[in-house]
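Field log, afternoon session.

UNIT: design team B
ACTIVITY: writing a sequence onto a fixed backbone
BACKBONE:
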């Protein structure tokens, strides 16, 4: 896909939109390894776009800008930069967006972001905005729409956001996010397709018409996926959890189990009308490459 394409232009072409998510490395060595991973997936699978997550402040934030720019310029792949409200004032966020737009980045995923203490493993940590900052992704989406000509994406939660009081409350805020400027939504990871299809049905009934893309996390490590699901409130179906427990001491068996489940999950999502697939790669190519290659052979 030509670099610099807006993601809204990718949907509605009559074929699924496939994308990969990476997180910015902390070291120069990690940056080289990431570029090799992205290049491997780009050459083998030709994704429609790739996204890069965002850390608040300092070198991590700068790395996001550097990585999305480098991928788009050197590999010719359309990129989307994640942007969060964590630790930044409105002015600081504006500076980051100006840098992104100045480097030709036309797609931004607007997120509130996790409370820093939650990322450190503190359960129940509350999000506290900095003075002059934003409290919600809806505010960030509206800010982006008011000042820049960029495509804005938003997150959504098939099983409900971990902080929501109910599915109805969660859906209310999702709709408001779209009204504020989000032109497409990408779901939190999930493993039961019924959760996705039920969410899409509720969203359509509520008047949300933008593409709702399922987010897929290939399971490659049992402890890792248990940590991720605990943080975000997602569940692992009982049968899959039992299979993973039996395979827990055999990394190759865990990966094979995760890949098998994801292939079936992805096939059924596309058969059910999902507009594409967004893979949370955890900066590794093997599982994602195996899954998408199998799905595309169908």
């Amino acid at each position: 896909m030509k670099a610099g394409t807006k993601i809204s232009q990718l949907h509605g072409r009559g074929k699924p939109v496939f994308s990969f998510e990476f997180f910015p490395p902390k070291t120069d060595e990690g940056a080289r390894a990431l570029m090799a991973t992205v290049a491997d997936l780009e050459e083998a699978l030709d994704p429609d776009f790739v996204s890069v997550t965002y850390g608040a402040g300092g070198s991590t934030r700068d790395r996001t800008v550097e990585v999305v720019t480098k991928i788009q310029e050197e590999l010719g792949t359309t990129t989307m930069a994640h942007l969060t409200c964590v630790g930044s004032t409105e002015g600081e966020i504006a500076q980051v967006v100006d840098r992104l737009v100045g480097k030709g980045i036309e797609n931004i995923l607007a997120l509130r972001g996790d409370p820093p203490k939650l990322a450190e493993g503190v359960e129940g940590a509350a999000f506290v905005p900095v003075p002059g900052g934003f409290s919600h992704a809806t505010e960030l989406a509206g800010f982006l729409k008011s000042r820049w000509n960029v495509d804005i994406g938003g997150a959504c939660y098939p099983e409900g956001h971990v902080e929501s009081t109910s599915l109805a409350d969660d859906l209310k805020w999702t709709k408001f996010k779209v009204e504020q400027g989000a032109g497409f939504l990408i779901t939190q990871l999930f493993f039961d397709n019924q959760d996705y299809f039920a969410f899409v049905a509720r969203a359509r009934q509520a008047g949300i018409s933008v593409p709702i893309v399922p987010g897929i996390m290939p399971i490659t490590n049992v402890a890792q996926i248990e940590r991720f699901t605990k943080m975000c409130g997602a569940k692992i179906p009982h049968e899959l959890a039992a299979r993973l427990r039996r395979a827990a001491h055999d990394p190759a068996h865990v990966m094979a189990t995760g890949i098998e489940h994801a292939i079936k999950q992805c096939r059924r999502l596309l058969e059910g009308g999902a507009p594409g697939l967004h893979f949370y790669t955890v900066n590794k190519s093997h599982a994602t490459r195996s899954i998408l290659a199998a799905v595309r052979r169908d």
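LOG NOTE: The mean pLDDT is 91.
NEXT ACTIVITY: expression trials, pending approval
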